[in-house]
Amino acid sequence: MRALPVGDDALLVEVSSGEEAQALHAVLLRRRAEGSLTVREIVPAARTVLLDGLADPDRWAAELTTSRIPEAPSHARELIELPVRYDGPDLAVVAGLWGVTEREAARIHAGTEFTVAFCGFAPGFGYLTGLPDRYAVPRRATPRTAVPAGAVALAGPYTGVYPRSSPGGWQLIGTTDAVLWDHTRTPAALLTPGARVRFVPLGDA
Amino acid sequence: MSDRVLVVVRAGALTTVQDLGRPGYAHLGVPRSGALDPPAAVLVNRLVGNPPDAAVLETTLSGCALRPRRTVTVAVGGAPGPVSVGGRPAAWGAPVVVPAGELLEVGAATAGVRGYVAVSGGIAVEPVLGSRATDLLSGLGPAPLTDGTVLPLGIPAGPPARVDGAPQPRPPAELVLRVTLGPRDDWFTAGAVRDLTTRPYRVSPASNRIGLRTEGPALERARPGELPSEGMVLGAVQVPPDGRPVVFLADHPTTGGYPVIAVVRAADLPAAAQAPPGTPVRFVPVRRR
Q1: Quick one: which of A11, B55, B110, B143 is 20 to 30 A from A143 by CA?
Q2: Boundaries of each Carboxyltransferase domain copy (chain A) (predicted)?
Q3: Interface of A with B in 7-46 (CB under 8 A)
Q4: Chain B contact set for A192 (CB, 8 A)
Q5: pTM
Q6: In which band, very low, low, confident or very high, does the pLDDT at A205 lie, cut at 50, 70 and 90?
Q7: Which of B58, B45, B47 has its CA nearest to residue B12?
Q8: How many Cβ atoms from other residues are within 10 Å of residue A101's Cβ?
Q9: Residue B283: pLDDT above 60?
Q10: Is the ipTM beyond the 0.90 threshold?
Q11: H helix count then E strand count, chain B
Q12: What is the DSSP string of B106-163?
């Protein structure tokens, strides 16, 4: 684990895997809840956790780099089920990349338990991990100018769901009617870092 | 009360509702947002008797024109420019009474970029996650103002300040940004780090609320390839593939995959928000505090 200083009052804590980043994120949330960590933002990402707005970044850098991250309890969070229709315009492309039929591609995706590794891109957009590495897919060569809200999409090792219509270059494999973001709801984001997610096919998929 | 409103007669190039933003939600992909020049927003609020975090209007270069339906006190600050009420010149940087139905005109900035207009009671649009700020990256908060927009006003909290005017910093002729290197300066050649901190840059016209883009020497990468997405802070100097540094401002994305060579001190960012395209920029390395 390395702690890189970021400006005057932030630290970027670098770990060796996405799982470790999620475990470290869970530890830091717990310490904040206990009151031993005072910080404005805790932002988990692919291989890092950013701590922004620390009163004493040097002390935390020293403490974090000499501590061990406990393994994250794998069933600490409730399972969120997202109903999905595997009807995306890129399903055939993804099935081709995986070397399977469209039906099998849908079955592989729906058979995976995902974890929200981190958020970004748009409020409520989660980067979901869980698919084995061999199912990683490239982004589309030409991004779409408008991806509809609720589109279930793949890029690299990640799955994501577009919370609202926006441009995007991910491969679209399906659609959900779930509301990913509603600022009048608490929490506003359906998918928060650490949440477990399953896609439940609608109809005969 | 139906007359406790402000009618936007001329919205100007880009006028948005801003306050001190919505920190604390970066992990959900929500930018901090808020006024690009917070000291100016806090000052105009103080001049009209509002709390520091009341919502104000942030104008961009061309000002705006507003008509309140009831008598209000306003203060205009940030980028200096002409102010008039009912066609008569009025004070900039001081509390001004605008009688019900009169037109407040905020003219084009004579220097700087972002003007701030505080109205007694504050702009009372519905808050989103505790803030009324317009976030142009993710579309949270009210849309940018258009001609004819009607904005609700809150109830005045206190009397306006008893001052004729308040000193405000002049927009910079040269933008000096103190930076601490890292966290990804090792992704660049030693020459690139030297270029950043010794060569001249200029503010690019492509700058916006998301980032201050610059023109100048392209910074050469020592490590090719993609950086896995990581959290981004306000003031991060991110370097996209074209090699030109971008300083992240209030509406910046919360995670990103381009390496951050340095971070600008928060105290220097209000001046960055006021630097028009073409302003010379110097990045000056400083030690972490």
Answers
A1: B143
A2: 1-191
A3: 7-8, 10, 12, 40-46
A4: 27-28
A5: 0.94
A6: very low
A7: B58
A8: 12
A9: yes
A10: yes
A11: 3, 20
A12: E---SSSSEEEEEETT-B-PPPBTTB---BTTTTBSSPPP-TT-EEEB----SPPPS-
Tell whether omega for the bond before B228 is within 30 degrees of 0, i.e. cis: no
- For A90, the token pair is 């890129």
Give me the pLDDT at residue B68, please: 98
Residue A157, φ and ψ in degrees, nearest 5? -85, 0
Give me B95's structure tokens: 């509390």
Contacts with A44 from chain B: Cβ below 8 Å: 27, 231
> CA Rg, chain B, in Å?
20
Q: Best interface-test mutation with A: which of B135, B140, B177, B233 has the largest number of A CBs within 10 A?
A: B233
Nearest CA to B19 out of B125, B172, B94 is that of B125
Q: Dihedrals φ, ψ of B106, to 5°?
A: -105, 115
Closest CB from B140, B182, B255 relative to A45: B255
Q: Which residues contact A3 (CB under 8 A, 6 or more apart)?
A: A11, A12, A13, A14, A60, A61, A64, A65
User: Hey, how many other C-beta atoms are within 10 angstroms of the C-beta on A47?
Assistant: 19
Q: Write out the two tokens for A43.
A: 């932002």
Chain A residues inside the 8 Å CB shell of B225: none
Radius of gyration of chain A from Cα atoms? Answer: 18
At residue B97, φ and ψ (nearest 5 deg) are -85, 130
Residue by residue, what is the 3-state secondary structure of B202-265?
EECCCCCCCEEEEECCCCCECCCCCCCCEECCCCEEECCCCCCCEEECCCCCCEECCCEEEEEC
Residue A67 pLDDT > 90: no
A 10 A CB-CB count for B273 gives 23
C-alpha to C-alpha distances, A56 to A66, A88, B179, nearest whole angstrom: 16, 48, 19
Inter-axis angle of helices A102-110 and A91-98, nearest 10: 90
Q: Enumerate the residues of chain B whose CB falls inside 8 A of the CB of residue A160.
A: none
Pick the closest to residue A141 from A165, A121, A169 (CA basis).
Answer: A169
Q: Are B178 and B284 in contact (CB under 8 A)?
A: yes
Q: What was the pLDDT predicted at B157?
A: 85
Q: Which of B205, B148, B203 is nearest to B176 (CA)?
A: B203
**Partner-chain contact B29 A12, CB within 8 Å:** no
Q: Coil, helix or strand for B22?
A: coil
> How many angstroms separate the Cα of B176 from the Cα of each of A145, B81, B85, B214?
37, 23, 36, 13
- Rounded to the nearest integer, the mean pLDDT of chain B is 96
